[in-house]
């Protein structure tokens, strides 16, 4: 446990106080101290004299040890043998001769009997769920611990749940459950378990954030309560430390079915500090290949090669940008993964080469359930190597999934992961090329015939571990092995792209995730926003939701709105169920198609911002998609912020828009924003707080740029991200009330690891102050050649200057043409023409 580690590793100079049964430790230069009380055991975390968190204040620490069932055959044999031995330890009842009895020198005195086991209760050794029986050979082995958070009323995290961003108190109902499950048509605003689990909870209040990371992969429940510290025994300590009075607090209790107590307290103090600290523990989001930030078109299923080519041609003919087409389970031969249906996909290599020539790519599904078929090479090899998960009796574990009877690879076994990775080599995955990437669905794992549609808890893994101990890790191991396979097939040169449905802490290192099988309803569109925000807080920055909804058929308005919202989420994919109507964008009416095209083009124009945000996330652990500001006491549910810059409010059922105090937000369409219900012709951009009335039609979505920021864009429409390489940039500079702004741009080749291994990248910093915009290197270690150049600069909130003068890195100066819009205070500088990777400045006088 973290507490035990702190005690065991402390140095004497870290001890700042000692009393009978109490130890005070200094936790470093931040002023944090830890009070350790022996009896009753309690940990109190303080910053100066402020109490931040108390562990076990309610005395709910639980650690059930493993037991042996007394009525087992081994116990019966042992009991008989003990009785036989006891006969030879007793003094003889009479003697053949004089003198005392001879001492027993063979059997030493036995230790005193151990404390009696508790009385057996129903369910101690096995439990029944519907028709399934779960044996528990070690008895109940649960662990649990409570945390009291004085002054914190808002807690977040512990995805995945289809709920608001702020976690609700669970008193009187079920706690939030973390147990990866394949859930059919999941319920909203419910603490039920879904596809993935990250046991990270964040607490936030003005000027302070904390994190609790409960490192346990077994089934876990999180109970959240609200209280007033002054009304509890724990409050007495708080009164002493902070001067009395009643302080609102949140109480959190973690309970896991098995495992050990291994807890990390993340001290913040800012939200981004907490996420960065968590990133140092579990890894940050892998930097995705640039194409994966474009638009993905999917459904269950595109039927054959002709269908794939027709869909790709449709995007071309209707001038819609798109990067990736997807194939679901029907593409494989009888759902035997790593194969192609010979009738529907007779020449997959030619299909992939055609897409690559159009600068597009393909994703195929490879699920972790393997069809039981002696003639199927994958099944035959894994069976021969003994690499499947086993039953409690040592046989291969088999269950029912898409192919029918299926076996499940044991991805906890390093040999299994090594074998799986080797299958992505071009000579193993027949028909594959560098343009083919992977979707790992059903990796909870999904077992249609299993309890709760997953694997039996008493199944056995590598090393003898029961499935109950590591259930939530299974999906991570699947995605990890797949990502390693993609890296290996290129000789370690190219970055992978893998989408997984199940996840755990650390899954961010291996690819993207999504919210699972949602429904074409307005509430599902709305809930996708807090769900993705919660993912980001837990390190899973590359997340999204099925645009349009997986189940059912969206109406045209819902479909358009979902594209508009999805364009502002990190992973942007449309997907649909087999039984839904086809919904490629050009099947909409022309007026709706035009709106979808605009949403797609906006996404692609902002890709430089997205990619820069992912680089910052990769380096520092800062979420790509987030809401509010670091000191917002109650972050709103709907607004989204990306890389400190734009803020969008997707049009969903009515909600409240909150703008933090002291901030200027520049509307991207200033004519549509007003302080009154009947907007005047000329808007004003005063600092918050204020209420803005934003008239919205189906063709508009409220998008604001925060004052004080610089956003890079590439505004020329192209068919894909690869087609945009070398395109010129436009900088949008939104001035703060002080007339300043800053931003950044990150560029690399978009596909390889050369940015990390060879420092082949550009990282530029833009700053506007005192009437001058400058570009300088944000990281001098990086260098890269690029034909990209600066085409325009648009400055929001700027008066008309007398002149604009460009100064390049060699000192030469050139006057620039400009246009000024006095009604909206927008200044546009035309064709500076400088390379985007060079130093330069533009002075306005």
Task: Tell me about this structure.
The protein has 845 residues and is α+β, with helices and mostly antiparallel strands. The chain has three domains: 2-63 and 139-282, glycosyl hydrolase (family 31) (Immunoglobulin-like), CATH 2.60.40.1760; 290-367 and 414-625, Alpha-Beta Barrel (TIM Barrel), CATH 3.20.20.80; 658-844, Golgi alpha-mannosidase II (Immunoglobulin-like, Sandwich), CATH 2.60.40.1180. 20% of the residues lie in helices and 24% in strands. The strands form seven sheets. The chain has an eleven-stranded mixed β-sheet with strand order 41-40-44-38-37-36-34-35-39-43-42. The protein is globular. The protein starts with a helix and ends with a strand. 46% of the residues are buried.
Give a quick set of tags describing it:
TIM Barrel, Immunoglobulin-like, 3 domains, Glyco_hydro_31_N_dom, hydrolase, ten-stranded antiparallel β-sheet, eleven-stranded mixed β-sheet, 15 helices, 24% strand, alpha+beta, 845 residues, globular, Glucosidase II alpha subunit
Draw up the topology in text.
Blueprint: H1 2-9, E1 15-19, E2 22-26, E3 32-37, E4 42-47, E5 50-55, E6 62-63, H2 73-89, E7 126-129, E8 132-135, E9 143-150, E10 154-157, E11 176-178, E12 200-205, E13 208-214, E14 220-228, H3 233-242, E15 248-256, E16 263-266, H4 271-282, E17 295-297, H5 305-317, E18 324-327, H6 348-357, E19 361-365, E20 370-371, H7 377-385, E21 398-401, E22 404-407, H8 414-422, E23 436-440, H9 467-470, H10 474-489, E24 498-500, E25 512-514, H11 522-537, E26 543-544, E27 546-547, H12 556-566, E28 572-574, H13 590-605, H14 607-620, E29 625-626, E30 640-642, E31 646-648, E32 665-667, E33 703-706, E34 709-713, E35 729-734, E36 741-747, H15 754-757, E37 762-769, E38 772-777, E39 790-796, E40 804-808, E41 813-815, E42 817-821, E43 826-830, E44 840-844
Parallel strand pairs: 17-18, 17-28, 18-19, 19-23, 23-24, 24-25, 25-26, 27-28, 34-36, 35-39
Antiparallel strand pairs: 1-2, 2-3, 3-4, 4-5, 5-9, 6-9, 7-8, 9-15, 10-12, 11-14, 12-13, 13-16, 14-15, 20-22, 21-22, 29-30, 30-31, 31-33, 32-33, 34-35, 36-37, 37-38, 38-44, 39-43, 40-41, 40-44, 42-43
Family: Belongs to the glycosyl hydrolase 31 family.
Region (Disordered): 1-20, 628-688
Organism: Catharus ustulatus (Russet-backed thrush)
